[in-house]
Design goal:
By secondary structure, the protein is of the alpha+beta class. It contains 14 helices and 37 strands. It has four domains: 135 residues, Tetratricopeptide repeat domain (Serine Threonine Protein Phosphatase 5, Tetratricopeptide repeat, Alpha Horseshoe), CATH 1.25.40; 239 residues, TolB, C-terminal domain (Neuraminidase); 167 residues, Immunoglobulin-like, CATH 2.60.40.1120; 109 residues, OmpA-like domain (60s Ribosomal Protein L30, Chain: A, 2-Layer Sandwich). The strands form nine sheets. Strands 2, 3, 4, 5 and 6 form a five-stranded antiparallel beta sheet that branches. Strands 15, 16, 17, 18 and 19 form a five-stranded antiparallel beta sheet that branches. Pfam families: OmpA, PD40.
């Protein structure tokens, strides 16, 4: 018969066996069982505390405190470093006085050891920093992303597009056995889309790699994701994947400058695509991970990696750089500077080409735990980060904060789509953005999503740009964008529709229609931004909609109820914008038709972009054109309507498309009227014979109509004054065969 003592001996023996091979998860419950059964052995308490201390979950780590305190109080054989570790646990638990007490004890017991003394002094300084920051909390409210995103496992490094439509993050998940490695856990990238203020259930981004992958950064438009890939013999490097609709490309090398034989962890790219900030522990740094930058040169190559130096980098680790779209504010993570415990988030500002002394973001963004991977939306009103602070669901979780109203950043964000007017489908496009104030130099090349046609551009205030647009199947065209000198964040939604103009199956021009949805005044813009901000609070569940609605109904506040319903339904997606000018008075609408016969090479504008000269159609000044078209007077009435009765009929020989000289007189008579009345045009109608194949006859009919059109064209009548009509086979069965080989020309009034 096994006695209680024998049973406990076996439990402890099993615990020791698991502990010796560092299987702390299986050792812990056995040690706890022995303690519950009455053992008072300080060594058992000590090892139980160590097992808890090794947990990735801070909530479990701080459960080690009573075990370690019992061990230290009841034995002199416990390692002295335990006082320091106990201080760390008290700091994470925000029991800062007890943390300092244990650091002091450790310091007193290690007096001959200079390294230990320095470690204790640094820890005490960190704890006192925590007291300072927590005594004056900042005006931030921290929200967990909740169970749609956070789990009992690890979620970290959230990267978010500038318009908050896409969120990607790194997740540590149990290895199912079908994955890249034999590890117990693997890292993978998950992505979620913002659907009317609610984040969708995250989906795995399938990245081809034999090793762990993670988020490193994302471009402001959400089209390029910078990712980390670790290797068997390589600490880890940075690569890029590109989005097309909901799919992502295979990883490609961004630039050899970025990677080294050492570790590269995270990166952030500016909206103009010219500068990448990244973290690396390569040789020549100040110590640990440092933040570097590389800049795109005029020859299209990336320049050498430049260490940001002091005051940003220290002998500690600086990681997770995030350059805000304003390009002057850099956020990063560090366990140096004036940290209040673990890793903290810091902010530095570029002033006169020098970075300011980093500012700790303060409590409650930073805590005594690890807080890192900070990313701020373009408008400055919401930020995302990850943390293993108390109260989380697992190890690291993802959080967001709503910034104070005063945090609005004066940038303009243009969200648009380029579509085919006839099919409403996206057109493969490149957008070259040229700063008109810097000698017409290329500022950036944008590649709208090939699956959706969507693009996102972020511009600073008080600037004037030309958008040179190359859309497949159309001549390059240029839109002028004038950014106001605003002091607030400004959103502009844009829809561009393109249409080819054909005359008898020949493309003779193109129409560009631009619709801008924005607010004309500062106050209107602020009101709309506030409404969008409030909508996100409502849709995310931050405020209790049910209680609000009951209160409004009780007070019979119809206006308030309508406003609340609007907030619930509000969506800032370009797809949800009302681009119907009949019902949206705030639209700026302008269209321009370009006929190629009026656009010879001398009238094209030469744009030097990407080292090549692009001939663009004349610049479309959208704002001016919209005002002019809106204020344009009604069409001038034709005084002599009888002129519209004039016409000509041209007959052709079978199989021929050349005009006989006998018809010149009747055609020239129409030409006289066209020169007299600029508001008149000609309507050319081509007919086909019923004989032979339908396709052949249609083609011959078009050739004949084109011959007549070119007759007028060569006489100075431009194609915009021509209305082309292909009427097909003559329907009159008794008509002479010649009737099927004719082209009719008549005078018509042109549309405005």
């Amino acid at each position: 018969m096994v006695t209680e003592v024998q049973a406990q001996t076996k439990v402890l023996a099993d615990a020791e066996r698991y502990f010796s091979i560092r299987n702390y998860e299986q050792a812990l419950p056995l040690y706890e069982q022995a303690i519950q059964e009455g053992t008072k052995d300080p060594g058992v308490y000590y090892k139980a505390g160590l097992c808890l201390q090794k947990s990735t979950n801070l909530n479990d780590q701080i459960k080690a405190i009573p075990y370690l305190e019992f061990a230290l109080s009841n034995s002199k054989d416990i390692p002295v470093i335990t006082y320091f570790e106990l201080g760390e646990l008290h700091l994470k638990n925000e029991s800062i006085d007890k943390a300092i007490e244990n650091y002091d004890k450790y310091k007193s017991l290690t007096q001959p050891d200079k390294k230990a003394q320095a470690m204790a002094d640094n820890a005490i300084t960190t704890a006192r920093n925590a007291i300072t920051f927590m005594s004056v909390p900042r005006d931030f409210k921290v929200h967990s992303m909740g169970q749609n995103v956070n789990t009992a496992y690890t979620e970290y490094n959230p990267v978010v597009s500038a318009d908050e439509s896409v969120l990607a993050f790194t997740a540590l998940r149990p290895n199912t056995g079908k994955t890249r490695s034999g590890d117990k856990f693997i890292e993978e990238i998950l992505i979620s889309n913002n659907q009317s203020g609610i984040w969708s259930l995250p989906q795995v981004v399938n990245v081809y790699s034999d090793y762990n992958v993670g988020t490193a950064g994302i471009s402001p438009d959400g089209q390029k994701m910078l990712i980390f890939i670790g290797g068997a013999s390589d600490p880890g490097n940075l690569f890029q994947i590109n989005r097309a609709g909901s799919d992502w490309s295979k990883p490609t090398l961004i630039t050899p400058v970025l990677n080294s034989p050492s570790l590269e962890t995270t990166a952030s790219i500016t909206p103009d695509g010219k500068t990448i900030y990244f973290a690396s522990d390569r040789k020549g740094g100040k110590g640990g991970l440092d933040i570097y930058k590389t800049t795109l040169q005029s020859n299209g190559a990336w320049g050498p990696a430049v260490n940001l130096g002091a005051p940003v980098n220290t002998e500690a680790n600086e990681d997770a750089p995030f350059i805000h779209p304003n390009q002057t504010t850099l956020y990063f993570t560090s366990d140096g500077h004036n940290s209040m415990g673990g890793r903290d988030i810091f902010k530095t500002t570029l002033v006169s080409n020098a970075w300011s002394n980093p500012e700790n973001m303060g409590y409650p963004v930073n805590t005594t735990a690890n807080d890192n991977y900070f990313t701020l939306l373009a408008d400055g009103r919401r930020a995302y980060f990850s943390s293993d602070r108390k109260g989380g669901l697992g190890a690291q979780d993802i959080y967001y904060i709503d910034m104070p109203e005063s945090s609005s950043i004066p940038l303009t964000m243009i969200k648009g789509k380029i579509l085919d007017a006839e099919t409403n489908k996206p057109i493969p496009t490149k957008i070259y953005l040229i700063d008109n104030e810097t000698d017409k130099k290329l500022d950036f090349v944008y590649h709208p999503d090939p699956e959706t046609g969507a693009y996102l551009v972020i511009l600073p205030p008080a600037k004037n740009y030309d958008m040179v647009i190359e859309s497949e199947g159309f001549l390059p065209y240029t839109l002028n964008v004038n950014v106001p000198n605003q002091t607030y964040f400004y959103e502009l939604y844009q829809q561009i529709k393109l249409k080819t103009i054909k005359q008898f199956d020949v493309v003779v021009g193109q129409e560009v229609q631009v619709k801008n949805a924005f607010y004309d005044t500062n106050q209107d813009a602020k009101t709309d931004i506030r409404k969008t901000h409030e909508s996100k609070l409502v849709q995310s569940g931050t405020v209790d909609v049910y209680d609000m609605m009951l209160d409004l109904m009780a007070s019979s506040d119809k206006e308030g109820i309508d406003y609340l319903v609007d907030l619930i339904q509000l969506d800032n997606s370009v797809d949800e914008i009302n681009f119907d000018e009949r019902t949206n008075s705030k639209l700026e609408v302008a269209a321009r038709t370009y006929y190629y016969d009026e656009s010879d090479e001398s009238k094209f504008e030469k744009k030097v972009v990407d080292g090549q000269t692009i001939l663009s159609l004349p610049t479309f000044m959208v704002a001016e054109e919209a005002k002019k078209q809106k204020d344009q007077p009604q069409k001038k009435e034709l005084t002599d309507k009888s002129v519209l009765n004039k016409s000509a009929k041209i007959f052709f020989d079978a199989g021929k498309s050349d005009i006989k000289a006998q018809y010149n007189t009747s055609l020239d008579a129409l030409l006289v009227e066209l020169e007299k009345y600029p508001e008149l045009g000609i309507e050319i109608s081509g007919f086909a014979s019923a004989e032979g194949s339908e396709e052949l006859n249609r083609e011959l009919s078009n050739k004949r109509a084109i011959a007549v059109l070119e007759y007028f064209n060569h006489k100075g009548i431009v194609r915009r004054r021509v209305v082309a009509k292909g009427l097909g086979v003559t329907k009159d069965a008794v008509a002479a065969k010649e009737e099927g080989r004719r082209v009719e020309v008549r005078l018509v009034e042109l549309e405005r």
